From TrEMBL:
<keyword id="KW-1133">Transmembrane helix</keyword>
<comment type="similarity">
    <text>Belongs to the purine-cytosine permease (2.A.39) family.</text>
</comment>
<keyword id="KW-0812">Transmembrane</keyword>
<feature type="transmembrane region" description="Helical">
    <location>
        <begin position="229"/>
        <end position="255"/>
    </location>
</feature>
<feature type="transmembrane region" description="Helical">
    <location>
        <begin position="332"/>
        <end position="353"/>
    </location>
</feature>
<feature type="transmembrane region" description="Helical">
    <location>
        <begin position="165"/>
        <end position="183"/>
    </location>
</feature>
<dbReference type="Pfam" id="PF02133">
    <property type="entry name" value="Transp_cyt_pur"/>
</dbReference>
<keyword id="KW-0472">Membrane</keyword>
<feature type="transmembrane region" description="Helical">
    <location>
        <begin position="28"/>
        <end position="46"/>
    </location>
</feature>
<feature type="transmembrane region" description="Helical">
    <location>
        <begin position="415"/>
        <end position="434"/>
    </location>
</feature>
<dbReference type="InterPro" id="IPR001248">
    <property type="entry name" value="Pur-cyt_permease"/>
</dbReference>
<feature type="transmembrane region" description="Helical">
    <location>
        <begin position="102"/>
        <end position="126"/>
    </location>
</feature>
<feature type="transmembrane region" description="Helical">
    <location>
        <begin position="261"/>
        <end position="280"/>
    </location>
</feature>
<feature type="transmembrane region" description="Helical">
    <location>
        <begin position="138"/>
        <end position="158"/>
    </location>
</feature>
<feature type="transmembrane region" description="Helical">
    <location>
        <begin position="58"/>
        <end position="81"/>
    </location>
</feature>
<feature type="transmembrane region" description="Helical">
    <location>
        <begin position="373"/>
        <end position="395"/>
    </location>
</feature>
<dbReference type="InterPro" id="IPR030191">
    <property type="entry name" value="CodB"/>
</dbReference>
Amino acid sequence: MASAVDEVPYTLDEPAPKVLGFWDQSAFWANLGVSLLAFSGAYTVLAPDENGVPTLSIAAGIVAMIVGTVVGGLMLGLAAVPGARTGRPAMVLLRGLFGARLSYAPTVLNIAQLIGWGTFELIVIADAARHLWDGIPRWGYVLAAGALTTALTIWPLGSVRLLRRYVTAAVIVALVYFYVLLVREPLPDLTDGGWDGFLIGADAALAVSISWVPVAADYTRHARTERGAFGAAAVGYSATQIVAYVLGLLALALAGSTGNVFDPFLAVPLGVLFFGVFVLREADQSFANVYSTAVSIQNLAPRADRRVLTVALGALITLLALVLDIGDYAGFLSLIGSVFVPMLGVLAADFFLGRGRDGWDGSVAAPSRWGMVAAWVIGFVAYQLINPGTVSGWAGFWTDVRELLNFAPQSWMSASLLSFLLAGAAALAAGRLANSRGERR
């Protein structure tokens, strides 16, 4: 893999090596943009209603997905810059934004969502592998995927370089091959359906991009330049996520009444071989989730050895994948977006326009900044009022709040964009208020 001096240090007490160039990072983010979840979860950008019936046509879903992905990619690029500038991982950066103690709350949320994503990935890998060959029981594939994931986390920077050298080319070849063959199939009318729920579909695509925002700095802290970190994350991820989702939507259209989005891939000549590339490559998604979970835990316990953490986490998500099902994927994405989109708005506003310009206090003694927390909450509430999601109980609560406030969201309201902007504006206001109080003192 890589020499010890070119690898991630075991604890947060050691400085992060700046060894990842633009192409290393581009390959990493591009591979994360191509996911089996982009195929199996393609229906989420069609804005399905409470009965699971899509409200968007395939064509409208493609446009919504592109819009959401481009916006989400720019947000991901913004989240990448602070890590490259400071050399700190994502959750440690939040010490400067919220204060050391207050950063523990989003850290715990991030750990929870990453464990969920890691578990989802192992489930998807096992299910897809079973479509390739069902001669091995599902638990066998889960165990194999968990072992591969854990091994990659031991040498994270070496794994990033491995993706660039070997995996990216194979993924590109597989994508081109499936595009050529699937578009030659007799596709149904892709315009059959409406455009109602367009922004909901865009928010679903944006939420997938945003799911990487809380971990972006875990990797870009090793970037050589800020510009390279922004460009690789924003462009590399967005381009391949668009390609993967369009392919997933085409496969969904071809799947027809079966509803199994993997069937069209496997039905073409050599489909098993090229789809196997996607299945094997999916381990980089679970790797990124497990590694970033360990780094997030280090914000709570800076001297914890990441190797011990990743081995334990790999075992945990493997166990969860053995006993859980993928469940409500769309609802999970909605909740992720509602938490981390406004948090990014606060971070971007304060880092680029507020106190962050002069440098954040990233120490364990960083003072609490309740104004930033209040700005985050404002953005979170705005998101829920516009789009409370589909998780039963949770969505019902926010629907009741809307009725109490006599608030009716309009069709032009994007939960992601408005919560991002409101949280950012509130953060700037809170920062100026804190500065004025400091000057008076």
